[in-house]
Design goal:
This protein is an alpha/beta fold. It is 38% helix and 18% strand. It is globular. Keywords: ATP-binding, Helicase, Hydrolase, Nucleotide-binding.
């Protein structure tokens, strides 16, 4: 038992990787203080995962901990963490379920979800106290104390040796909703409804904000391109109402105009998709990003499917359609992240943590408008790979979104509730903010049509319409080649170019609509097996377990014996824990044993 613990404590040599200045500074502060709890707030795209795994590697090598447990919001992030850990020389198992008791041999720990922890907190408590453990709580705002997840996290990891909390967005909680292992101070605030109050604001041990990351070229600067348009709909009284997105008047009318604009049957969506595709083409051909891609964020699966058909019609190419309840969603995200597809249409799957560095364009085609979700979604397109890159977000010109865009660089504090639906002990979906509540009469709402027009570019809180540039200063051809790249085009010049292209896009969409014989079916994109999985320890173990089970079935069929009997004989022939907990070496030996029985 002691030798096993010693083996777990020694992490493999990690891949050499230079640290960013903030990561090095945060590590130095941690090592100076050697705290039990440490909270890091770093803007999306800054590299929180690298920081956490570098710290874990150092603690393992110094034998200050013998195990690492990562808790994250979604199943896809489990795979992402495990792959990142493999590159750092740390073997974390992302497939360990609550049905398997001990941590598998040959690993330094595992990755789980908040939902799994909530399912069996005492099991996770036993795993985290069996040996000295570093627990990494990714996006810790999911663990609000007033919620079931927070209570479970407290119970599971209250006695762990070390705890590292990570978040991409500072958060605020109510006085009776404390997140475990986070320090708070009382703080007055003004809510989104304009009313103030007293709450608790978290105090990070190290903070790295968007402004600092932008100055360090760690994240891309963001250009917000807002599109207005006239929406027409029929209300519950049977009256046809028309209103502009940007001049809707009351909040109720604004919401109905917004909802109509997002309807797939109108012209607002295809127009903005065409503008988005135009931007991707520019980035690939002239912007120094030959693999540039875009993300379309939809409110629900029906809209996502409809938007995917529009993408094919407008661009001539099928997008990657990533739905949260699709069992292949994680594989599709990986394929899109490493492939060459131009656009992915997503529901639920692109907010916090999902890493697609080549994604530089986002189309906001949802009515969601909470500040936390907005920051997380925009965070998917700001991860910089080179100093010349920039991000573009296309969005409806409605006040709630324009307000969020204008204040993006401010430090906001929020708390996110957990999802209401958990299947077994697995978390398949990431929670989206609830849809805006609508009056009962809206049940009879009928969207009729909506057009789209470029409204303005939002930069530094100022709207640039493109109409203020003197006629004597037309855009030169070389200027057009650098749409939106800060330092090469001003915000006003960018707006002028978008406005100029607006009519061209409208003509292109009309031509596509008349010439394309759309059957409504999207071509099937074949799944390709991962070619680079060899050598990834946790992936090897998962495949070996599947192969052992297949061979057991063949032996059982050949010998007319129950599967359980074959498994029992196999464990006698090759001693060790059940296959679900067995190491790679044991699984390989069992595989060879089974082959001799056929």
């Amino acid at each position: 038992m002691a030798s096993a613990a010693r083996a777990e404590a020694v992490a493999p040599q990690r891949t050499s990787r230079p640290l960013r200045a903030w990561q090095q500074a945060a590590l130095e502060k941690y090592e100076q203080e050697s705290p039990k709890d440490f909270l890091v707030t770093a803007t999306p795209g800054a590299g929180k995962t690298t920081f956490a795994l570098t710290l874990a590697s150092r603690l393992l090598q110094r034998r200050e901990v013998a195990r690492v447990v990562v808790v994250c919001p979604t199943d896809h992030l489990r795979l992402q963490w495990a792959d990142a850990a493999d590159r750092m020389g740390i073997v974390l198992d992302p497939g360990l379920t609550n049905a398997v008791g001990p941590v598998r041999a040959g690993t330094q720990g595992y990755v789980t979800t908040y939902a799994q922890v909530a399912g069996k907190p005492m099991l996770h408590a036993a795993r985290s106290t069996a040996v000295k453990t570093l627990v990494v709580l990714d996006e810790v705002h999911h663990a609000g104390d007033g919620l079931s997840w927070g209570e479970a996290v407290e119970e599971a990891y209250g006695f762990a040796a070390r705890r590292l909390c990570l978040t991409g967005t500072p958060f605020r909680t109510k006085p009776d909703e404390r997140i475990p292992f986070v320090r708070y101070e009382e703080d007055g605030f003004e809510g989104d409804d304009g009313e103030g109050g007293m709450g608790l604001v978290s105090r990070a041990d190290y903070t790295y904000g968007y402004k600092e990351a932008l100055a360090d070229n760690v994240v891309r600067p963001v250009v917000f391109a807002a599109y207005t348009g006239t929406s027409r709909w029929r209300n519950s009284a049977g009256e046809v109402v028309a209103a502009s997105l940007s001049e809707a008047g009351t909040r109720s009318v604004e919401m109905q105009a917004w909802r109509t604009a997002l309807d797939p049957k109108g012209q607002w969506v295809p127009h903005v998709i065409a503008a988005m595709d135009d931007r991707i083409t520019h980035l690939r051909e002239e912007g120094g990003m030959p693999d540039a891609a875009g993300l379309i964020l939809a409110s629900d699966q029906d809209d996502a499917r409809a938007y995917a058909k529009i993408v094919r019609r407008v661009t001539g190419k099928a997008p990657e359609l990533i739905l949260s309840d699709d069992p292949k969603a994680s594989k599709k995200i990986e394929r899109f992240a490493t492939g060459s597809a131009r656009i992915a249409v997503c529901v639920r799957m692109i907010s916090e943590g999902v890493d697609v560095p080549r994604a530089a364009v986002l189309a906001w085609m949802t009515s969601y408008r909470t500040p936390l979700f907005f920051a997380q979604a925009v965070g998917r397109v700001v991860r910089a790979r080179a100093s010349h890159e920039s991000a573009t977000v296309f969005l409806p010109a409605v006040r709630p979104l324009l307000g969020l865009a204008a204040s993006m660089e401010e430090q906001r504090n929020h708390v996110m509730p957990p999802p209401k639906t958990v299947q077994g002990d697995e978390l398949d979906l990431e929670p989206l903010p609830p849809k805006e509540r609508e009056p009962v009469t809206m049940k009879q709402f009928e969207a009729l049509e909506a057009d789209a027009r470029f409204a303005h570019v939002l930069a530094s809180g100022t709207a640039h319409t493109g109409e203020g540039r003197p006629a004597a200063e037309p855009l030169a051809a070389e200027e057009e080649d650098f749409l939106g790249i800060p330092g090469l085009l001003t915000a006003e010049q960018t707006a002028s170019l978008l406005a100029k292209r607006d009519d061209e896009l409208r003509i292109r969409i009309a031509q596509r609509a008349h010439s394309d014989d759309d059957t409504g079916e999207l071509p099937v994109v074949e799944d390709h097996p991962d070619e680079d999985d060899a050598g990834r320890s946790w992936r090897d173990a998962a495949e070996l377990r599947r192969e052992v089970n297949r061979l057991v079935a063949r032996v059982a069929a050949k010998t007319s014996r129950p599967h359980g009997v074959v498994h029992t004989e196999l464990r006698k022939a090759v001693p060790g824990p059940p296959s679900a907990s067995a190491s790679v070496d044991v699984l390989r030996a069992r595989r060879e044993r089974l082959r001799t029985m056929l």
